[in-house]
Recover the amino acids of this structure.
Protein backbone atom coordinates (compact mmCIF):
# COMPACT_ATOMS: atom_id res chain seq x y z
CA UNK A 1 0.00 0.00 0.00
CA UNK A 2 1.32 3.45 -0.98
CA UNK A 3 2.11 5.92 1.77
CA UNK A 4 -0.08 9.04 1.68
CA UNK A 5 1.44 12.52 1.94
CA UNK A 6 -0.41 15.82 2.35
CA UNK A 7 1.49 18.88 1.07
CA UNK A 8 0.34 22.25 2.42
CA UNK A 9 1.65 25.47 0.81
CA UNK A 10 0.01 28.69 -0.32
CA UNK A 11 2.06 28.75 -3.56
CA UNK A 12 0.52 26.51 -6.21
CA UNK A 13 3.81 26.10 -8.10
CA UNK A 14 5.48 24.63 -5.01
CA UNK A 15 2.54 22.26 -4.40
CA UNK A 16 2.63 21.12 -8.02
CA UNK A 17 6.41 20.61 -8.01
CA UNK A 18 6.46 18.64 -4.74
CA UNK A 19 3.46 16.59 -5.83
CA UNK A 20 5.12 15.51 -9.06
CA UNK A 21 8.39 14.63 -7.34
CA UNK A 22 6.78 12.51 -4.58
CA UNK A 23 4.40 10.77 -7.00
CA UNK A 24 7.41 9.87 -9.14
CA UNK A 25 8.88 8.15 -6.05
CA UNK A 26 5.72 6.08 -5.61
CA UNK A 27 3.82 8.07 -2.99
CA UNK A 28 0.14 8.97 -3.06
CA UNK A 29 -0.06 12.77 -2.73
CA UNK A 30 -2.78 15.28 -1.85
CA UNK A 31 -2.36 19.06 -1.62
CA UNK A 32 -3.95 21.99 0.17
CA UNK A 33 -3.31 25.72 -0.10
CA UNK A 34 -4.50 26.88 3.31
CA UNK A 35 -5.85 25.85 6.70
CA UNK A 36 -9.40 25.29 5.49
CA UNK A 37 -8.23 23.12 2.62
CA UNK A 38 -6.11 21.10 5.00
CA UNK A 39 -9.09 20.42 7.26
CA UNK A 40 -11.14 19.33 4.25
CA UNK A 41 -8.44 16.90 3.07
CA UNK A 42 -8.08 15.43 6.54
CA UNK A 43 -11.81 14.72 6.64
CA UNK A 44 -11.46 12.71 3.43
CA UNK A 45 -8.32 10.62 4.11
CA UNK A 46 -5.79 9.46 6.70
CA UNK A 47 -2.22 10.51 5.98
CA UNK A 48 1.20 9.09 6.79
CA UNK A 49 2.91 12.49 6.61
CA UNK A 50 2.01 16.17 6.44
CA UNK A 51 4.52 18.61 4.87
CA UNK A 52 3.53 22.19 5.57
CA UNK A 53 5.03 25.62 5.05
CA UNK A 54 5.17 27.47 8.35
CA UNK A 55 3.94 30.74 6.78
CA UNK A 56 0.47 30.42 5.20
CA UNK A 57 -0.91 33.91 5.17
CA UNK A 58 -3.77 34.10 7.65
CA UNK A 59 -2.90 30.89 9.53
CA UNK A 60 0.50 29.28 10.27
CA UNK A 61 2.02 25.85 10.04
CA UNK A 62 1.74 25.66 13.83
CA UNK A 63 -2.06 25.91 13.45
CA UNK A 64 -1.87 23.04 10.95
CA UNK A 65 0.27 21.10 13.41
CA UNK A 66 -2.26 21.54 16.23
CA UNK A 67 -5.09 20.40 13.98
CA UNK A 68 -3.21 17.31 12.79
CA UNK A 69 -2.38 16.34 16.37
CA UNK A 70 -6.07 16.57 17.27
CA UNK A 71 -7.52 14.78 14.23
CA UNK A 72 -4.79 12.30 13.28
CA UNK A 73 -2.45 12.14 16.29
CA UNK A 74 -0.21 9.42 14.84
CA UNK A 75 0.65 11.41 11.71
CA UNK A 76 4.09 13.13 11.74
CA UNK A 77 4.28 16.77 10.62
CA UNK A 78 7.37 18.29 8.98
CA UNK A 79 7.66 22.09 8.82
CA UNK A 80 9.16 23.94 5.83
CA UNK A 81 10.39 27.43 6.61
CA UNK A 82 12.70 30.04 5.25
CA UNK A 83 12.98 32.05 8.48
CA UNK A 84 13.15 29.71 11.47
CA UNK A 85 13.41 31.38 14.85
CA UNK A 86 13.47 30.23 18.44
CA UNK A 87 9.83 31.08 19.11
CA UNK A 88 8.41 29.16 16.15
CA UNK A 89 10.77 26.23 16.79
CA UNK A 90 9.77 25.96 20.45
CA UNK A 91 6.07 26.26 19.56
CA UNK A 92 6.33 23.55 16.92
CA UNK A 93 8.28 21.17 19.15
CA UNK A 94 5.88 21.74 22.02
CA UNK A 95 3.00 20.72 19.80
CA UNK A 96 4.85 17.69 18.40
CA UNK A 97 6.45 18.62 15.06
CA UNK A 98 8.58 15.74 13.78
CA UNK A 99 11.25 17.87 12.08
CA UNK A 100 12.15 21.13 10.26
CA UNK A 101 13.37 21.64 6.69
CA UNK A 102 14.88 25.01 5.86
CA UNK A 103 14.50 26.83 2.55
CA UNK A 104 15.90 26.70 -0.05
CA UNK A 105 14.65 23.11 -0.08
CA UNK A 106 16.48 20.43 -2.03
CA UNK A 107 14.34 17.48 -2.93
CA UNK A 108 17.05 15.06 -1.80
CA UNK A 109 17.01 16.51 1.72
CA UNK A 110 13.22 16.71 1.79
CA UNK A 111 12.92 13.08 0.67
CA UNK A 112 15.32 11.90 3.41
CA UNK A 113 13.30 13.67 6.10
CA UNK A 114 10.01 12.39 4.65
CA UNK A 115 11.21 8.77 4.49
CA UNK A 116 12.50 8.97 8.06
CA UNK A 117 9.19 10.40 9.29
CA UNK A 118 7.15 7.72 7.49
CA UNK A 119 9.36 4.94 8.90
CA UNK A 120 8.79 6.44 12.35
CA UNK A 121 5.02 6.37 11.79
CA UNK A 122 5.08 2.76 10.58
CA UNK A 123 7.03 1.72 13.66
CA UNK A 124 4.65 3.62 15.94
CA UNK A 125 1.62 2.12 14.18
CA UNK A 126 3.07 -1.38 14.59
CA UNK A 127 3.63 -0.77 18.30
CA UNK A 128 0.04 0.48 18.62
CA UNK A 129 -1.29 -2.62 16.84
CA UNK A 130 0.76 -4.86 19.11
CA UNK A 131 -0.47 -3.00 22.15
CA UNK A 132 -4.14 -3.30 21.11
CA UNK A 133 -3.65 -7.01 20.40
CA UNK A 134 -1.90 -7.46 23.72
CA UNK A 135 -4.66 -5.60 25.52
CA UNK A 136 -7.30 -7.84 23.96
CA UNK A 137 -5.32 -10.97 24.91
CA UNK A 138 -4.74 -9.83 28.48
CA UNK A 139 -8.42 -9.08 28.98
CA UNK A 140 -9.22 -12.67 27.94
CA UNK A 141 -6.96 -14.43 30.48
CA UNK A 142 -7.92 -15.21 34.05
CA UNK A 143 -4.50 -14.71 35.67
CA UNK A 144 -3.31 -11.46 37.15
CA UNK A 145 -1.46 -9.77 34.28
CA UNK A 146 1.04 -6.95 33.93
CA UNK A 147 2.31 -5.62 30.60
CA UNK A 148 5.34 -3.31 30.89
CA UNK A 149 7.63 -1.37 28.60
CA UNK A 150 11.42 -1.56 28.69
CA UNK A 151 11.54 0.76 31.72
CA UNK A 152 9.07 -1.44 33.68
CA UNK A 153 6.32 1.14 33.27
CA UNK A 154 2.88 -0.47 33.31
CA UNK A 155 1.09 -0.45 29.95
CA UNK A 156 -1.79 -2.68 31.00
CA UNK A 157 -2.90 -4.25 34.30
CA UNK A 158 -5.60 -6.80 35.01
CA UNK A 159 -6.67 -8.47 38.25
CA UNK A 160 -3.92 -6.92 40.37
CA UNK A 161 -6.25 -5.58 43.04
CA UNK A 162 -7.04 -8.95 44.64
CA UNK A 163 -3.67 -10.64 44.12
CA UNK A 164 -1.19 -7.82 44.71
CA UNK A 165 -3.27 -5.09 46.34
CA UNK A 166 -2.45 -2.64 43.53
CA UNK A 167 -4.83 0.28 42.92
CA UNK A 168 -7.14 0.20 39.91
CA UNK A 169 -5.37 3.19 38.38
CA UNK A 170 -1.93 1.51 38.42
CA UNK A 171 -1.51 1.88 34.63
CA UNK A 172 1.30 4.26 33.68
CA UNK A 173 3.17 3.81 36.96
CA UNK A 174 6.50 2.08 37.50
CA UNK A 175 6.09 -1.54 38.58
CA UNK A 176 9.04 -1.02 40.94
CA UNK A 177 7.09 1.71 42.75
CA UNK A 178 4.13 -0.57 43.41
CA UNK A 179 6.03 -3.63 44.62
CA UNK A 180 6.88 -2.25 48.06
CA UNK A 181 4.49 -4.39 50.11
CA UNK A 182 5.89 -7.78 49.05
CA UNK A 183 9.18 -9.58 48.51
CA UNK A 184 9.25 -8.52 44.83
CA UNK A 185 9.99 -12.08 43.73
CA UNK A 186 7.69 -11.72 40.69
CA UNK A 187 9.50 -8.55 39.69
CA UNK A 188 12.83 -10.40 39.86
CA UNK A 189 11.49 -13.11 37.53
CA UNK A 190 10.31 -10.47 35.04
CA UNK A 191 13.65 -8.68 35.17
CA UNK A 192 15.47 -11.92 34.43
CA UNK A 193 13.18 -12.62 31.48
CA UNK A 194 13.86 -9.16 30.04
CA UNK A 195 17.61 -9.32 30.71
CA UNK A 196 18.04 -12.84 29.30
CA UNK A 197 15.48 -12.20 26.53
CA UNK A 198 13.76 -15.52 27.05
CA UNK A 199 10.65 -16.74 28.91
CA UNK A 200 10.73 -17.88 32.51
CA UNK A 201 7.85 -20.20 33.25
CA UNK A 202 6.45 -22.13 36.20
CA UNK A 203 8.27 -20.21 38.94
CA UNK A 204 6.63 -20.69 42.33
CA UNK A 205 6.98 -17.79 44.76
CA UNK A 206 5.89 -17.12 48.31
CA UNK A 207 4.76 -13.49 48.14
CA UNK A 208 5.59 -12.42 51.73
CA UNK A 209 3.01 -9.68 51.13
CA UNK A 210 2.31 -7.48 54.15
CA UNK A 211 -1.46 -7.94 53.68
CA UNK A 212 -1.35 -11.51 52.30
CA UNK A 213 1.40 -13.22 54.32
CA UNK A 214 0.50 -16.80 53.31
CA UNK A 215 -0.08 -16.20 49.61
CA UNK A 216 1.83 -18.36 47.12
CA UNK A 217 1.75 -17.74 43.37
CA UNK A 218 2.92 -19.34 40.13
CA UNK A 219 4.67 -16.87 37.84
CA UNK A 220 5.32 -16.82 34.08
CA UNK A 221 7.28 -13.96 32.47
CA UNK A 222 7.65 -13.34 28.73
CA UNK A 223 9.80 -10.66 27.04
CA UNK A 224 8.80 -8.55 24.02
CA UNK A 225 11.59 -8.66 21.44
CA UNK A 226 11.95 -6.30 18.48
CA UNK A 227 13.21 -7.32 15.04
CA UNK A 228 16.79 -6.95 16.26
CA UNK A 229 16.26 -9.25 19.25
CA UNK A 230 16.34 -6.44 21.83
CA UNK A 231 13.93 -6.52 24.76
CA UNK A 232 11.30 -3.74 24.57
CA UNK A 233 9.13 -4.81 27.50
CA UNK A 234 7.27 -7.90 28.62
CA UNK A 235 4.29 -9.60 30.22
CA UNK A 236 4.04 -11.01 33.73
CA UNK A 237 1.32 -13.59 34.45
CA UNK A 238 0.56 -14.48 38.08
CA UNK A 239 -1.72 -17.31 39.23
CA UNK A 240 -2.59 -17.88 42.86
CA UNK A 241 -2.36 -21.39 44.26
CA UNK A 242 -5.53 -23.04 45.44
CA UNK A 243 -5.60 -23.87 49.15
CA UNK A 244 -7.30 -26.45 51.27
CA UNK A 245 -7.40 -26.20 55.04
CA UNK A 246 -4.98 -23.29 54.83
CA UNK A 247 -2.24 -25.29 53.10
CA UNK A 248 -0.84 -24.77 49.60
CA UNK A 249 -1.55 -27.78 47.44
CA UNK A 250 1.62 -29.41 46.13
CA UNK A 251 2.47 -28.99 42.46
CA UNK A 252 2.75 -32.45 40.88
CA UNK A 253 5.20 -33.01 38.08
CA UNK A 254 6.92 -29.63 38.11
CA UNK A 255 9.31 -29.45 35.19
CA UNK A 256 11.17 -26.20 35.92
CA UNK A 257 12.36 -24.08 38.82
CA UNK A 258 13.81 -20.82 37.53
CA UNK A 259 16.45 -22.01 35.01
CA UNK A 260 16.67 -25.57 36.37
CA UNK A 261 14.97 -28.13 34.09
CA UNK A 262 13.78 -31.59 35.12
CA UNK A 263 10.80 -33.59 36.34
CA UNK A 264 12.61 -36.57 37.89
CA UNK A 265 12.18 -37.43 41.58
CA UNK A 266 15.79 -36.33 42.16
CA UNK A 267 15.04 -32.86 40.77
CA UNK A 268 11.76 -32.60 42.69
CA UNK A 269 13.82 -33.04 45.88
CA UNK A 270 16.18 -30.29 44.71
CA UNK A 271 13.24 -27.96 44.04
CA UNK A 272 11.73 -28.67 47.45
CA UNK A 273 15.01 -27.99 49.23
CA UNK A 274 15.53 -24.77 47.27
CA UNK A 275 12.08 -23.52 48.28
CA UNK A 276 12.85 -24.17 51.91
CA UNK A 277 16.20 -22.35 51.65
CA UNK A 278 15.39 -19.21 49.62
CA UNK A 279 14.86 -17.01 52.67
CA UNK A 280 16.94 -18.89 55.24
CA UNK A 281 19.91 -16.54 55.44
CA UNK A 282 22.57 -19.17 55.88
CA UNK A 283 25.54 -20.34 53.86
CA UNK A 284 24.73 -23.04 51.30
CA UNK A 285 27.28 -25.49 49.91
CA UNK A 286 26.35 -26.79 46.45
CA UNK A 287 28.13 -29.99 45.45
CA UNK A 288 27.98 -32.05 42.33
CA UNK A 289 29.93 -33.07 39.27
CA UNK A 290 31.00 -30.54 36.66
CA UNK A 291 28.13 -29.53 34.41
CA UNK A 292 25.26 -30.43 36.74
CA UNK A 293 24.04 -26.82 37.10
CA UNK A 294 25.53 -25.52 40.34
CA UNK A 295 25.49 -21.91 39.12
CA UNK A 296 21.80 -22.24 38.21
CA UNK A 297 21.08 -23.39 41.76
CA UNK A 298 22.83 -20.30 43.12
CA UNK A 299 20.73 -18.13 40.82
CA UNK A 300 17.54 -19.85 41.99
CA UNK A 301 18.43 -19.28 45.64
CA UNK A 302 19.05 -15.60 44.98
CA UNK A 303 16.14 -14.76 42.68
CA UNK A 304 13.64 -16.83 44.64
CA UNK A 305 14.20 -14.98 47.90
CA UNK A 306 13.93 -11.56 49.45
CA UNK A 307 17.36 -10.51 48.11
CA UNK A 308 16.20 -10.86 44.49
CA UNK A 309 16.21 -7.12 43.81
CA UNK A 310 19.80 -6.80 45.11
CA UNK A 311 23.02 -7.83 43.31
CA UNK A 312 24.04 -11.43 42.59
CA UNK A 313 27.84 -11.42 42.25
CA UNK A 314 29.63 -14.48 40.85
CA UNK A 315 33.30 -15.36 41.35
CA UNK A 316 35.22 -18.27 39.83
CA UNK A 317 37.82 -18.88 42.54
CA UNK A 318 39.82 -21.29 40.40
CA UNK A 319 40.31 -18.73 37.65
CA UNK A 320 42.41 -16.27 39.66
CA UNK A 321 45.79 -16.39 41.40
CA UNK A 322 45.73 -15.83 45.18
CA UNK A 323 46.88 -12.18 45.00
CA UNK A 324 44.29 -11.34 42.35
CA UNK A 325 41.53 -13.29 44.10
CA UNK A 326 42.14 -11.45 47.38
CA UNK A 327 41.85 -8.10 45.62
CA UNK A 328 38.79 -9.24 43.65
CA UNK A 329 36.95 -10.45 46.74
CA UNK A 330 37.86 -7.75 49.23
CA UNK A 331 39.10 -4.81 47.14
CA UNK A 332 42.24 -2.74 47.70
CA UNK A 333 43.35 0.81 48.37
CA UNK A 334 45.57 2.91 46.16
CA UNK A 335 49.22 1.96 46.56
CA UNK A 336 48.52 -1.39 48.23
CA UNK A 337 50.74 -3.11 45.64
CA UNK A 338 52.42 -2.39 42.33
CA UNK A 339 49.75 -1.47 39.83
CA UNK A 340 47.16 -0.40 42.45
CA UNK A 341 46.74 3.09 40.98
CA UNK A 342 43.31 3.69 42.52
CA UNK A 343 40.98 2.33 45.19
CA UNK A 344 38.94 -0.70 44.17
CA UNK A 345 35.72 -2.09 45.62
CA UNK A 346 35.75 -5.88 46.01
CA UNK A 347 33.07 -8.39 45.07
CA UNK A 348 31.86 -8.78 48.67
CA UNK A 349 31.17 -5.07 48.91
CA UNK A 350 29.48 -5.05 45.49
CA UNK A 351 27.18 -7.85 46.70
CA UNK A 352 26.12 -5.96 49.84
CA UNK A 353 22.44 -6.67 50.47
CA UNK A 354 22.45 -9.48 47.93
CA UNK A 355 24.26 -12.75 47.29
CA UNK A 356 27.83 -13.70 46.43
CA UNK A 357 28.41 -17.01 44.64
CA UNK A 358 31.89 -18.48 45.07
CA UNK A 359 32.43 -21.25 42.53
CA UNK A 360 35.24 -23.83 42.79
CA UNK A 361 35.71 -23.00 46.48
CA UNK A 362 37.78 -26.15 46.96
CA UNK A 363 40.67 -24.61 45.01
CA UNK A 364 41.41 -21.58 47.21
CA UNK A 365 44.69 -21.38 49.15
CA UNK A 366 45.04 -21.75 52.95
CA UNK A 367 45.52 -17.98 53.30
CA UNK A 368 42.29 -17.27 51.42
CA UNK A 369 40.51 -19.97 53.44
CA UNK A 370 41.45 -18.14 56.63
CA UNK A 371 40.25 -14.77 55.30
CA UNK A 372 36.99 -16.24 54.05
CA UNK A 373 36.33 -17.91 57.42
CA UNK A 374 36.51 -14.54 59.16
CA UNK A 375 34.09 -12.99 56.68
CA UNK A 376 31.60 -15.80 57.22
CA UNK A 377 31.85 -15.48 61.00
CA UNK A 378 31.84 -11.69 61.36
CA UNK A 379 30.58 -10.37 58.00
CA UNK A 380 33.42 -7.89 57.84
CA UNK A 381 36.84 -7.66 56.17
CA UNK A 382 39.64 -5.24 55.34
CA UNK A 383 40.58 -4.24 51.84
CA UNK A 384 44.10 -5.14 50.75
CA UNK A 385 46.47 -2.47 52.12
CA UNK A 386 43.90 -1.08 54.55
CA UNK A 387 43.15 -1.68 58.23
CA UNK A 388 39.65 -0.21 58.36
CA UNK A 389 37.03 -3.01 58.62
CA UNK A 390 34.19 -3.00 56.10
CA UNK A 391 30.83 -4.43 57.24
CA UNK A 392 28.58 -6.15 54.71
CA UNK A 393 25.26 -7.96 54.65
CA UNK A 394 25.80 -10.74 52.13
CA UNK A 395 24.40 -14.21 51.67
CA UNK A 396 27.22 -16.59 50.73
CA UNK A 397 26.59 -19.50 48.38
CA UNK A 398 29.56 -21.68 47.43
CA UNK A 399 30.04 -24.58 45.04
CA UNK A 400 32.60 -27.24 44.30
CA UNK A 401 33.04 -30.45 42.36
CA UNK A 402 35.92 -31.41 44.67
CA UNK A 403 35.71 -33.94 47.48
CA UNK A 404 36.04 -31.49 50.39
CA UNK A 405 36.00 -34.17 53.15
CA UNK A 406 38.97 -35.81 51.42
CA UNK A 407 40.76 -32.44 51.20
CA UNK A 408 40.10 -31.91 54.92
CA UNK A 409 41.53 -35.36 55.66
CA UNK A 410 44.67 -34.52 53.66
CA UNK A 411 45.03 -31.15 55.39
CA UNK A 412 44.63 -29.02 52.23
CA UNK A 413 41.28 -27.55 53.30
CA UNK A 414 40.51 -26.11 56.73
CA UNK A 415 38.15 -28.27 58.74
CA UNK A 416 36.56 -25.28 60.52
CA UNK A 417 35.85 -23.58 57.19
CA UNK A 418 34.40 -26.79 55.75
CA UNK A 419 31.87 -27.10 58.56
CA UNK A 420 31.12 -23.37 58.37
CA UNK A 421 30.34 -23.76 54.68
CA UNK A 422 28.44 -27.01 55.17
CA UNK A 423 25.61 -25.52 57.24
CA UNK A 424 23.32 -26.72 54.44
CA UNK A 425 24.59 -28.92 51.62
CA UNK A 426 22.66 -29.26 48.38
CA UNK A 427 23.94 -32.09 46.24
CA UNK A 428 23.02 -32.06 42.55
CA UNK A 429 22.49 -35.46 40.92
CA UNK A 430 24.50 -36.31 37.79
CA UNK A 431 22.51 -36.61 34.56
CA UNK A 432 23.03 -40.39 34.40
CA UNK A 433 21.02 -40.67 37.63
CA UNK A 434 18.06 -38.74 36.22
CA UNK A 435 17.84 -40.03 32.67
CA UNK A 436 14.08 -39.37 32.53
CA UNK A 437 14.99 -35.66 32.31
CA UNK A 438 17.01 -36.09 29.10
CA UNK A 439 14.02 -35.72 26.68
CA UNK A 440 12.85 -32.61 28.56
CA UNK A 441 16.34 -31.09 28.53
CA UNK A 442 16.74 -31.93 24.85
CA UNK A 443 13.49 -30.15 24.03
CA UNK A 444 14.59 -27.15 26.10
CA UNK A 445 17.94 -26.84 24.31
CA UNK A 446 16.32 -27.26 20.89
CA UNK A 447 14.08 -24.28 21.66
CA UNK A 448 17.07 -22.31 22.89
CA UNK A 449 19.24 -23.00 19.83
CA UNK A 450 16.37 -22.46 17.39
CA UNK A 451 16.11 -18.93 18.77
CA UNK A 452 19.89 -18.45 18.89
CA UNK A 453 20.63 -19.73 15.38
CA UNK A 454 17.30 -18.70 13.79
CA UNK A 455 16.52 -22.30 12.88
CA UNK A 456 13.38 -24.46 12.86
CA UNK A 457 14.64 -27.84 14.04
CA UNK A 458 11.76 -29.86 15.45
CA UNK A 459 13.36 -32.73 17.35
CA UNK A 460 16.05 -35.40 17.43
CA UNK A 461 15.63 -38.75 15.71
CA UNK A 462 14.64 -41.83 17.74
CA UNK A 463 18.18 -43.17 17.18
CA UNK A 464 19.69 -40.03 18.68
CA UNK A 465 17.39 -40.17 21.69
CA UNK A 466 18.33 -43.83 22.17
CA UNK A 467 22.01 -42.84 22.14
CA UNK A 468 21.33 -40.03 24.62
CA UNK A 469 19.53 -42.38 26.99
CA UNK A 470 22.37 -44.91 26.88
CA UNK A 471 25.29 -42.50 27.21
CA UNK A 472 26.97 -41.93 30.62
CA UNK A 473 27.24 -38.13 30.25
CA UNK A 474 30.51 -37.45 32.10
CA UNK A 475 29.97 -33.74 31.39
CA UNK A 476 26.32 -33.89 32.52
CA UNK A 477 23.80 -31.24 31.39
CA UNK A 478 26.51 -28.95 30.06
CA UNK A 479 27.79 -31.76 27.83
CA UNK A 480 24.26 -32.42 26.53
CA UNK A 481 23.93 -28.73 25.69
CA UNK A 482 27.27 -28.72 23.84
CA UNK A 483 26.40 -31.91 21.92
CA UNK A 484 23.16 -30.35 20.71
CA UNK A 485 24.89 -27.08 19.82
CA UNK A 486 27.37 -29.08 17.73
CA UNK A 487 24.45 -30.86 16.03
CA UNK A 488 22.72 -27.56 15.25
CA UNK A 489 25.83 -26.34 13.43
CA UNK A 490 25.72 -29.35 11.07
CA UNK A 491 22.01 -30.12 10.79
CA UNK A 492 20.42 -28.93 7.53
CA UNK A 493 17.01 -30.51 8.01
CA UNK A 494 14.35 -30.28 10.70
CA UNK A 495 15.50 -33.35 12.66
CA UNK A 496 18.87 -34.01 14.26
CA UNK A 497 20.29 -37.41 13.28
CA UNK A 498 23.27 -39.44 14.45
CA UNK A 499 25.30 -38.01 11.53
CA UNK A 500 25.22 -34.56 13.16
CA UNK A 501 26.47 -35.68 16.59
CA UNK A 502 30.14 -35.33 17.57
CA UNK A 503 32.06 -38.42 16.42
CA UNK A 504 33.69 -38.77 19.83
CA UNK A 505 30.33 -39.48 21.45
CA UNK A 506 29.15 -41.89 18.74
CA UNK A 507 32.45 -43.80 18.72
CA UNK A 508 32.37 -43.99 22.52
CA UNK A 509 29.11 -45.89 22.25
CA UNK A 510 30.42 -48.13 19.45
CA UNK A 511 27.78 -46.96 16.96
CA UNK A 512 28.73 -46.86 13.26
CA UNK A 513 28.75 -43.31 11.94
CA UNK A 514 26.23 -42.85 9.08
CA UNK A 515 27.51 -41.93 5.65
CA UNK A 516 26.51 -38.31 6.21
CA UNK A 517 29.14 -37.98 8.93
CA UNK A 518 32.19 -37.64 6.69
CA UNK A 519 35.60 -36.51 7.96
CA UNK A 520 35.13 -33.23 6.07
CA UNK A 521 32.13 -32.49 8.28
CA UNK A 522 34.16 -33.20 11.40
CA UNK A 523 36.98 -30.96 10.20
CA UNK A 524 34.51 -28.14 9.59
CA UNK A 525 32.96 -28.67 13.02
CA UNK A 526 36.34 -28.39 14.72
CA UNK A 527 37.26 -25.34 12.64
CA UNK A 528 33.93 -23.67 13.43
CA UNK A 529 34.34 -24.31 17.16
CA UNK A 530 37.88 -22.87 17.09
CA UNK A 531 36.73 -19.76 15.26
CA UNK A 532 33.74 -19.31 17.56
CA UNK A 533 36.03 -19.55 20.61
CA UNK A 534 38.68 -17.26 19.05
CA UNK A 535 41.01 -20.29 18.90
CA UNK A 536 40.83 -21.00 22.61
CA UNK A 537 41.31 -24.78 22.63
CA UNK A 538 39.62 -25.33 25.99
CA UNK A 539 36.50 -23.38 24.98
CA UNK A 540 36.41 -25.11 21.59
CA UNK A 541 36.51 -28.48 23.34
CA UNK A 542 33.60 -27.37 25.52
CA UNK A 543 31.53 -26.36 22.48
CA UNK A 544 32.06 -29.77 20.87
CA UNK A 545 31.68 -31.72 24.12
CA UNK A 546 35.11 -33.36 23.81
CA UNK A 547 38.38 -33.19 25.72
CA UNK A 548 41.08 -30.61 25.01
CA UNK A 549 43.42 -33.48 24.08
CA UNK A 550 40.95 -34.50 21.37
CA UNK A 551 40.90 -30.96 19.99
CA UNK A 552 44.70 -30.95 19.67
CA UNK A 553 44.59 -34.39 18.01
CA UNK A 554 41.96 -33.26 15.51
CA UNK A 555 43.88 -30.09 14.69
CA UNK A 556 46.91 -32.22 13.85
CA UNK A 557 44.87 -34.92 12.06
CA UNK A 558 43.12 -32.44 9.74
CA UNK A 559 46.05 -30.00 9.50
CA UNK A 560 43.89 -27.13 10.72
CA UNK A 561 45.73 -23.83 10.74
CA UNK A 562 44.70 -20.42 11.91
CA UNK A 563 44.15 -18.13 8.94
Amino acid sequence: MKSKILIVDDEESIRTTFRGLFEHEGYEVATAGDYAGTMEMMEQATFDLVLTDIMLGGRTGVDILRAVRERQPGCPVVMITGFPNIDTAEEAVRHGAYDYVRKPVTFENLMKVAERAIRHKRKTDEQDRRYLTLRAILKSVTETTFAVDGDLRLLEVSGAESTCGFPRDAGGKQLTELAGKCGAGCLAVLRRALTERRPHEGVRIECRHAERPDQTVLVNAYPFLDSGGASTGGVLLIRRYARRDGAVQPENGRTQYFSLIGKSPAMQKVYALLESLVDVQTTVLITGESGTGKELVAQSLHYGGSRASKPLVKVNCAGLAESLLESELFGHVKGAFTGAIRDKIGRFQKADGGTIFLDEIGDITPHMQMRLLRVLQEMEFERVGDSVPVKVDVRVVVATNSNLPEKVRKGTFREDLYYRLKVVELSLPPLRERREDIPLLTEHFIKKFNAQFNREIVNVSPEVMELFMGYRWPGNVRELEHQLEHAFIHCRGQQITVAELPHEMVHCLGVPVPSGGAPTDERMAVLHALEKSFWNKTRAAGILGVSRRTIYRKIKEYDIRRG
Residues 242-252, 510-519 have pLDDT under 50 and may be disordered. The first helix runs from residue 12 to 24.
